[in-house]
Amino acid sequence: MAATTEFTATHASHTDSLDSWIGALRTRIARYRLYRQTVNELGALSGRELADLGLHRSMIKRIAIQAAYEATAR
After folding, report:
1. Where's the YjiS-like domain (predicted)?
2. pTM for the full predicted model
3. What is the pLDDT along the chain (74 residues), one digit of tens a residue?
């Protein structure tokens, strides 16, 4: 009986570990999708539209990184 209880406890910790890993993977995928969406949307704007927003084309990747990774980490 002790072996069964020990096995169950070990199994639960492996399940928790796997759930944690899957959760972290989902978070990374969601952040990457937000990054790509931001890059694509800003990249589709003309130079004039970017200038109206106070942006330059060279700023797109940095802004996308901030939107996806820095803002969601808080």
Report:
1. 25-60
2. 0.72
3. 455 555 555 555 778 888 999 999 999 999 999 999 999 999 999 999 999 999 999 999 999 999 999 865 55
